[in-house]
Amino acid sequence: GEFCNIAGGVDTNNNLSSNADNSTDILSLYIRMKGGYVRGSIYGAGAYAQAHGNRKIVITGGTIKGWVAAGCNGTSDESSGGTLNGNTYVYIGGDAVIGNTDGSQPITVNTSQGGNIFGAGSGNSNQPETGRVLNSTVVIADNAFVQQNVYGGGNYGYTQGTADVHILGGTIGGNVYGGSNQKGGTGVLLTMKGGTVKGDIYGGSNITGTIKN
Questions:
Q1: Residue 175, burial from CB neighbour count under 10 angstroms (0-12, 13-18, 19+)
Q2: How far is CA 52 from the centre of its chain?
Q3: pTM summary value
Q4: What is the pLDDT of residues 103-152, one digit of tens each?
Q5: How far apart are CA 47 and CA 54, in angstroms?
Q6: Closest CA to 109 of 120, 96, 99
Q7: Phi and psi dihedrals of 166, rounded to 5?
Q8: Gyration radius from the chain CA atoms
Q9: Cα separation of 183 and 204, whole Å?
Q10: Do 144 and 196 meet the contact criterion of CB atoms below 8 Å apart?
Q11: Percent helix, percent strand, percent coil in the chain, to nearest 5
Q12: Taking a C-beta distance cutoff of 8 angstroms, is the pair 134, 160 a contact?
């Protein structure tokens, strides 16, 4: 099938469930893609609303013209919202394609350019917390193709805890960053056991941001 965007979360209340004893569970969300075509992006939380619970995104086939972010999209610069109070896991493997294989300019969806993988949220430059997640894990494997960069953090989003990045296979056309593109982060673990990175590998962030343990 063909999709515009796939969103994995809405507001906080819709990510909670009540038990018989009136206690509350935080739900996790699992997005699984084996084929098809996404004209936009995939993100694990809401457009800009706050969300709770862990996010797991596994993509082993199909083409995504935009980006993949485990946290929120970051479409609004509202002063509240946009954080994901949970851990994230992103697996890009199989024959998945993120971006354009012909080298043409990737599309831009909201605040981020296509062809990128973010372990946190895409985020928004006007709000420092938008796009934040707890801990992130990003795995690139098999014959996957990522046109641009792989980040343990987000674009303007970041990890509050540790970003754990594993390059096990596939081809990455740009660089690998343990941190974010335009924001800092905390701890970083970065492992490469296979695959091809056509650019460079950095433990820190890209444009700006400090990694702090």
A1: middle
A2: 16
A3: 0.92
A4: 999 999 999 999 999 999 999 988 888 999 999 999 999 999 999 999 99
A5: 16
A6: 99
A7: -125, 120
A8: 16
A9: 10
A10: no
A11: 0, 35, 60
A12: yes
